[in-house]
Amino acid sequence: MTSVNIGIIGGGLMGREMASAFARWCALTDVPVRPVLTAVADLNPATLAWFDGIPSCTQKTTDYKALLANPDIDVVYVAVPHHLHEQLYGDVLAAGKDLFAEKPFGIDLASARRIHAAAQASGRFVRCSSEMPFFPGAQRAFELAKSGSIGRILEVVSGFHHSSDLDPTKAANWKRLNAMCGEGGALNDLGMHACHIPLRLGWKPSRVFAQLQKGYPQRPDGKGGVANCDTWDNALLNTWIKVGEREVPMRLEMKRLMPGATNTWFIEILGTDGGVRYSTADTKALWLFERGKEQFWKRTDLGFSTPFKTVTGGIFEPGFADVIQQMWAAYLMERAGLLNGRFGCATPDEAVATHEIFAAALQSQAQGTVVSL
Ligand SMILES: NC(=O)c1ccc[n+]([C@@H]2O[C@H](COP(=O)([O-])OP(=O)(O)OC[C@H]3O[C@@H](n4cnc5c(N)ncnc54)[C@H](O)[C@@H]3O)[C@@H](O)[C@H]2O)c1
């Protein structure tokens, strides 16, 4: 078993999620690389205090540069607001560390391209967080699409919905402000989730028509005042992709105003000979289309068939915390040259490709036209 020392910059929602995935690494049975959380940096001392419960995490600092100066750290995971991505990712690479970046990999396309260039110039191992493809149902959909058994692809829908902006009394945070989340808003926030599997299948849109919607222009600021919220909340992207020689419609949906949805990732791929539907709203259910004399949508209940094997019983259902751990296993195994054909984390190329789609969508919305990529 090889240990890899990890530093986390940004111990908020995602920083703590990652730390807890490391803490139950013993669940994995075929991953000979082990992350050891060694240091955390966050501006908020109260956030740092949560890491007191992790004995290996001996450096807790409000200055991320102190973490980067720690020679023991091999890999740095950064989970901070989007306007800080470029600076911090660049600093991680300049410090000679490998980087596990968060999406959207920079606040906009120009920023993503600069991060990509810095990553290439550094020669460090860099990947971007995107955990939803590690659900067994997502993996099955991906493998089925790749196999060609679906026949001629007719249509693809891929998306991510939640409803946390429906409540107008919810206080604004940085994800509702263009200055910190980026002009892309929901595209930056949720777009990687919708694009990752299509991009891995080579399905990058050639043309985009976007319908973007804003939510409430003002929200409580959480301190007794009011904050102006200027981000796009919902994004519907009608795109064309090329599959073989044919053009195929693909709809990408990213919504923070979807009544009833809580972190719902879904994909639907329809073909002439078969089809597949999977949604985390019904985590175990995989729907497969079968064309014969009669046509069937068959449902099967998936178990815990994750890419990296675990002690968890095969009939048990996986959840968000499990796919976060699977994603980290993929990062560390690929870094060690041990991925062996399994699904790898989002690459810098894929992260830049998502921003190319978002930039085209913003242009389409502004002009009311179809935009070519
Ligand atoms: N993969 C996913 O499913 C997923 C889910 C949510 C968020 N994210 C991404 O993770 C990133 C962070 O989002 P979050 O929801 O964890 O945000 P958050 O607001 O919960 O946490 C951000 C943390 O960064 C800290 N911070 C800000 N500036 C800092 C600095 N200069 N040095 C050190 N710490 C600093 C803040 O104090 C805060 O604790 C974003 O890129 C977001 O898009 C990914």
Question: What does the model show?
Answer:
With 373 residues, this protein is an alpha/beta fold. Helix 5 packs antiparallel against helix 10 and helix 8 crosses helix 10. It has 10 helices and 17 strands. 30% of the residues lie in helices and 28% in strands. The chain has a 9-stranded mixed β-sheet. Strands 3-2-1-4-5-6 form a 6-stranded parallel β-sheet, with helices on both faces.
Q: In terms of per-residue confidence, which ranges show pLDDT below 50 for 5 or more consecutive residues?
A: none
From the alpha-carbon coordinates, what is the Rg to the nearest angstrom?
21 Å
Identify the quaternary structure here: single chain
Query: In what order do the strands lie side by side in the largest sheet?
Result: 16-15-14-13-7-12-11-8-17
**Biggest sheet descriptor:** 9 strands, mixed
- Helical run tally: 10
Write the layout of secondary structure elements.
Blueprint: E1 2-9, H1 13-23, E2 33-41, H2 45-50, E3 59-61, H3 64-68, E4 75-78, H4 85-94, E5 98-101, H5 109-122, E6 126-128, H6 136-147, E7 153-161, H7 178-181, H8 186-200, E8 207-214, E9 218-220, E10 226-228, E11 232-243, E12 246-255, E13 264-271, E14 274-279, E15 285-291, E16 295-301, H9 320-335, H10 348-367, E17 371-372
Parallel strand pairs: 1-2, 1-4, 2-3, 4-5, 5-6, 7-12
Antiparallel strand pairs: 7-13, 8-11, 8-17, 9-10, 11-12, 13-14, 14-15, 15-16
Helix pairs in contact: 1-9, 4-5, 5-10, 8-10
Bound molecules: nicotinamide-adenine-dinucleotide (NAD).
